[in-house]
Design a protein that fits this description.
The complex is a heterodimer of chains A (314) and B (395).
Chain A (H helix, E strand, L loop, with lengths): L4 H6 L15 H11 L6 E6 L3 H6 L10 E4 L5 H17 L9 E8 H6 L2 H10 L4 E6 L39 H6 L5 E6 L5 H11 L5 E6 L3 H5 L5 H10 L5 E5 L2 E5 L8 H4 L14 H25 L2
Parallel strand pairs in A: 1-2, 1-3, 3-4, 4-6, 5-6
Antiparallel strand pairs in A: 5-7, 7-8
Chain B lengths: L2 E5 L1 H12 L3 E3 L8 H11 L6 E3 L4 H14 L3 E5 L1 H16 L5 E6 L13 H4 L7 E4 L3 H15 L8 E6 L8 E5 L2 H8 L16 E2 L8 H30 L6 E4 L6 E6 L2 H14 L4 E6 L1 E3 L3 H8 L4 E6 L10 H12 L6 E6 L8 H17 L6 E4 L6
Parallel strand pairs in B: 2-3, 2-4, 4-5, 5-7, 6-7, 11-12, 11-14, 14-15, 15-16
Antiparallel strand pairs in B: 1-8, 6-13, 10-12
Helix pairs in contact in B: 1-2, 1-6, 3-4, 6-8, 9-12, 10-11
The chains are: A alpha/beta (314), B alpha/beta (395).
Chain lengths: 314, 395
């Protein structure tokens, strides 16, 4: 069925209002939309890694999640949900659970809990083939503890542990390519997406990930107004610029075959960098080289992706 | 009729797990507990159990998966040793705080560093304040029996705490001894079905587990854990009583060996108790009133009961197979001494740290402890209470 934004938006939210995420944060919009792709008749067990979303949605004695939800620690959402899924498999086979009901398993982790401290747990869960979706809401730093750099932080970004100083101009390393690492796990479905436009891309990739059997992975851009330094009202604009500059390409890898969504017009990277305080120092006279290098890196990765698409669709 | 067998401690643990038939086992190999998941995966591969075996990529994930599985409504078990338990440490606390009755077989081994694969109790002592019930086992039979009793204790509505059954790495885990197994059907009936009240997979009542729990509530939640640990004492005895009815084998918080008139008493845990019993027997033949208290239930600590059991002794030695490195004696020593003090019982008591990193402890070694105790009993002079047994002293 074709995506109908009105119909999807009207569905009951499984992540409800009242949570304490910041205004202008990308994460709750992403989580809410992904969960709208769970069929209303299906139960879901959601696992959360410690991070912004966990500590703002489940503060005792309140929860914003209408499905079953489990949080254990920072680095182990993948392993925790593995256990839940294994229990489901075992108990269903033993007829300890209703046979006519389906339960879906979805983990949410930030880039800290996914790219860094939780990478091993995620890799293990994916390799073992648990029937689950792991969603990384990538805001590009440890935002919960106060904007420290992660391996998802883009080069030159000013963070509290990679401050743009007079000698070192921000983070000196390029970001890790997590979706590619996941592709190395030969998963049935990997999607990189963002909340752009009417959220069609996000919804459709979520639906595919949730209803593809086996371990699936979604990498979703989740801008952070505190860490990135944009006006809270500009969330959707930032998302769109990330996609249109090809900083955050939208693509999927279905059984190893790449499908890349190309922007109508690839914008220069400055368009994405300029509205964000974390890149402000890149626009000082004499720092043009930083923008050039950033652009070169984006171009290189974009071309690689196009090459992979061509190669895998032969 | 029970089944007479010859099994190693690890085989005994794996056999108990097979009979318990948990829904999920998540484990990672580490010497000397590796054989437990090995044997168990054979049961899985041969369809002898209904268990989903999760071959995780680390012990941290093993405990995380057990937490997920148990919260989901399943019975979850694991096995580990030493650094494996250390890697789980964060999740060990989370398991107990979520009140999940996970059962673990802990095959005790020295925690690094430096690296050592042999037995001592430094792994278990590292989690003694983590809110797990901890049962220690002298031999393969006790490791098996404790596991058969484990779920009944852990899952009791007054308890709901995780439980670990300890046994000594290599010394019992790899030694083959006679054992009396209980028939499968009897174990199944004894352990019973697991009916969690709230669980993630109940679509009729979604629940949220593991909140951010701040100043307004965490203290009360921790007090509830402490209360559950206190209540566990009664349940441990009740389950032991039922177990005795089934097998004739008697269990309590600790075993008192020749304690009726004992004047010099050793307190220890796990396999060393077997060595100490042999020495007690020898000393008794010489007319020495030697006795032994073998602690089975280390957490909850049966403080009042142990103090009373020791009240008539003239000198006591508490043997710790782990050094707390605090300059003031081992963990068991501290617990025993403070239990006696609280009960207003004052008996000269020595701390012996022994057997570190698998250093052999023989009847002769235990004999020196009793002879030290006889001196203390005679002179009333404790001297240095913080002693070491079997260590080579540097110059």
């Amino acid at each position: 069925m074709a995506y109908n934004h009105k119909e999807v938006a009207a569905r009951e939210a499984r992540l409800t209002a009242g949570h304490r995420m910041c205004a202008g944060c990308g994460a709750p919009a992403v989580a809410r939309m992904i969960l709208k792709a769970v069929k209303p008749e299906d139960h879901a067990v959601i696992a959360g890694a410690t991070g912004c979303m966990e500590v703002s949605t489940f503060i005792y004695p309140y929860t914003a999640w209408t499905d079953s939800y489990i949080h254990t620690a920072f680095e182990c959402a993948g392993a925790t949900l593995s256990g839940v899924e294994a229990a489901y498999k075992s108990m269903k086979a033993q007829e300890k659970l209703p046979q006519d009901k389906d339960t879906k398993f979805i983990a949410f982790g930030g880039d800290g809990g996914t790219y860094d401290i939780g990478l091993q747990s995620l890799s293990g869960a994916m390799e073992r083939g648990h029937d689950m979706v792991y969603v990384c809401y990538d805001n590009g730093a440890y935002m919960n503890t106060g904007i420290q750099r992660s391996s998802a932080t883009p080069r030159f970004a000013d963070t509290t542990t990679s401050p743009a100083g007079s000698v070192i101009p921000g983070k000196m390393q390029s970001r890790k390519d997590l979706a590619k690492i996941m592709a190395g796990h030969n998963l049935p479905y990997i999607g990189q997406t963002a909340a752009v436009g009417n959220m069609k891309d996000l919804y459709e990739k979520a639906e595919k990930a949730i209803y593809t059997e086996g371990p699936c992975f979604l990498n979703v851009l989740a801008p952070c107004p505190r860490g990135w330094g944009y006006n809270t009202a500009d969330l959707m604009t930032i998302n769109k610029l990330a996609v249109d500059t090809c900083y955050w390409p939208l693509y999927e890898v279905v059984d190893g075959v790449y499908h890349v969504s190309k922007p109508a017009k690839k914008l220069p990277i400055e368009e994405f960098l300029k509205p964000q305080k974390r890149f402000r120092h890149m626009f000082k006279p004499g720092n043009e080289w930083m923008i050039q290098e950033f652009q070169a890196e984006v171009d290189k990765r974009w071309q690689e992706l196009l090459d992979l698409e061509e190669m895998t669709n032969k | 009729m029970s089944i007479r067998e010859r099994l190693s401690g690890n085989e005994a643990a794996a056999t108990a797990m097979k009979q318990i038939n948990p829904d999920v086992v998540a484990a990672f190999p580490i010497t000397p507990s590796t054989e437990i998941p090995q044997y168990f995966s054979t049961f899985v591969s041969n369809g002898q159990v209904d268990t989903e075996f999760v071959a995780v990529e680390s012990e941290h994930s093993a405990m995380s998966a057990c937490i997920g599985a148990e919260a989901a409504g399943a019975r979850a078990m694991t096995a580990t040793s030493a650094n494996g338990l250390s890697l789980m440490w964060e999740m060990i606390y989370i398991a107990s705080s979520l009140r999940l009755p996970i059962v673990m077989s802990l095959v005790n081994r020295a925690v690094s560093g430096p690296l050592n694969i042999h037995n001592d109790h430094s792994d278990a002592m590292g989690v003694r304040d983590a809110g797990w019930i901890m049962l220690f086992s002298e031999n393969n039979q006790e490791a098996y029996d404790n596991l058969v009793m484990a779920h009944r204790i852990a899952e009791h509505k007054d308890v709901l705490l995780p439980l670990m059954v300890c046994q000594d790495g290599f010394i019992t885990s790899h030694s083959i001894e006679n054992i009396e197994l209980i028939e499968d059907e009897k174990v199944k009936e004894f352990v019973g079905k697991y009916h969690p009240e709230h669980y993630l997979l109940n679509d009729k009542e979604p629940i949220a587990v593991g909140p951010l729990d701040l100043q307004a509530y965490l203290f009360e939640h921790k007090k509830q854990q402490a209360d559950a640990m206190r209540r566990a004492k009664k349940v441990i005895l009740e389950v032991a009583e039922d177990f005795e009815k089934m097998t004739g084998r008697k269990y309590s918080f600790f075993e008192e060996y020749k304690m009726e008139d004992a004047e010099v008493v050793v307190v220890c845990m796990n396999s060393t108790a077997g060595t100490a019993k042999a020495e007690v027997d020898r000393l008794r033949e010489e007319g020495v009133k030697a006795g032994l208290v073998k602690v089975r239930c280390f957490r909850p600590f049966p403080a009042e009961e142990i103090a009373k059991a020791l009240q008539n002794a003239k000198a006591i030695a508490v043997l710790d197979k782990s050094d707390s490195l605090n300059g003031a004696g081992g963990a068991l020593f501290e617990d025993v001494v403070s239990a006696m003090y609280t009960e207003n019982i004052h008996v000269p008591t020595l701390s012996y740290v022994y057997g570190i990193g698998g250093r052999d402890t023989t009847t002769k070694d235990i004999g020196t402890v009793y002879s030290d105790l006889l001196d203390v009993a005679k002179t009333g002079n404790v001297g240095n209470p913080y002693r070491y047994l079997g260590v080579r002293e540097g110059k």
